Amino acid sequence: MGIKVVKRHGNTLKEKLYLPAIFGGMKTTLSHFITNLSDKPHISTILYPEEQPHDISERYRGVHRLTKRDDESVRCVACFMCATACPAECIFIEAEERTDGVDEKMPKRFDIDLLECVFCGACVEACPCDAIRMDSGIFSFIGKKREDFVLTKEQLLANKEKKQ
Amino acid sequence: MSTLSVFVVILNVILALLFSLGLAPILVWVERRVAGLIQDRLGPNRCHIKGIRLGGLVQSLADMLKLVFKEDFQAKAIQENFCFSLAPVIVFVSAFLSFMVIPFADDLIINGERFIMQGLPTDLGILWFLALAGLSVYGIMLGGWASRSKYSLLGAMRAGAQVISYEAAMGLSVVSLLITYGSIHLGDIVAYQGELLFGFIPAWGIIVQPIAAIIFIVTAFAEANRTPFDLAEGESEIVGGYHTEYSAMRFGLFFVGEYVAMSASSALIVTLFLGGYHLPYLNTQTLQTTMPYVLGFIILTLPLGSFYAMRWIKKHNRWYLKSDVRNTESAVLQKGLIGLNILVIAGLGALLYLGLTPTSTNVATAVIQVLTFAAKLFLMNFVFVWVRWTLPRFRYDQLQTLGWKVLMPLAIANIVISAIIIVVKGL
After folding, report:
1. ipTM score of complex
2. Using an 8 Å Cβ cutoff, are B204 and B210 in contact?
3. pTM metric for this prediction
4. Residue A27 above 90 pLDDT?
5. Residue B337 distance to chain A (closest CA, Å)
6. Contact B38/A32, CB-based, under 8 Å?
């Protein structure tokens, strides 16, 4: 086994003077400063409310939406699978009988409290009918009071799939 | 006391206030924006009054208002109420007063009366600065002790040790300067720097006494408690250091005091080493003899500079929607710049057209020198900020090693060498 001699740093006069290294560091920071003041800055900060994020991926779990059948009626059959799977217990379903012959059951009320929701996607996994999805791409939801954050069935049906 | 002298004294006090206290919010903004730009982010730029953002300058105003109206919370364990309240006042007042002996311009002569252009018309100069700058650490130590918190006490202890280590080197570097300049009055020191060395280099302190300049600048960073010597408030190990227990405006005074101290240190560095209020190659006499040309130069370059400033603002402060605040703000700034240009050019043109009297020449000289001083002060403050966002913090023992084992022997050697050169050359 040979011995590898590691070169120690910090013993030359230049390194012991500190000042050349300090000026080197100051040069680096100044070059960043000047570049960012110039016409081609390297700042990747987006100006948020005006500029929307462009890195929302296809699989991003946004606000939920209820999907529809081909005849534009609600696909959900009020089986309570999603409400059962929900770890945050934020889904409130009230079922009623479906009379148009398409199916037997449908939700009368389907509320999701977004303040409780942890956006885990367990409801989407649990749904046997592909009736609930989280592909709306809505990443920020704004309301002025707590009640605004409880999404009703109509609001969930109105959410559209995000165009990629 | 004539009306004129009262007016000049009040003007001087206002200038001193502007350069110390008025600069503090601007420096806070500069600090945050420069930090952002150095680290490839934006920094605060949204706060505005009716759409006027000024690149986020309004943010400092908002922060100040917040500090004033916040609850002034004080822990029950603090029993030395008087000391606790006195500490930020000492820090602030000593930083503020140390600014008072900096000359902003050469002595102004109006109608045969001579006015010293500094906050306090005294020639104590550098002694005043050393006395008061050393005092500010008492505020820090008192605050840290009265807080009854271990973090505060440790911070105060570090600050005390730091000041002891650095005050010595600072004083010694100043001694070598005094040997060179032959005066403690800052006005004389600046006048010395207006001369030329070997006939072509401005005799600025940084060229005449480079070692003293390095030592003084390094110790000034320690004196103002700025990075890399701000270990009195090392967030990673002692939370906020000496001001951990302070809130609201009492903390605000510490905060503003830090910036005023930084500004005072830069003012002294500018005065001692960077030629003070002198433009390079233009000392007071040459400035007064060539005044018409200087004014003509200003009239020519001001519109050009404003044009480039405007172009920069238009490129960087805009948004594709016409009605956006950025576009309206740019338009307002453009109008303001054009108005300023017209005002200045008309004033200077009238001055040149009517012919310069000795009094108007003197006043114009003073104004140009005050502006020069302000520009240099701002640049030096920028260097303070720039260094803060470049260098990491020194360790406690490294700091003391640097102070006692490197800077102090260097300062003493510098005194000996300067003295020998002065004696041999018989200056």
Report:
1. 0.84
2. no
3. 0.84
4. yes
5. 20
6. yes
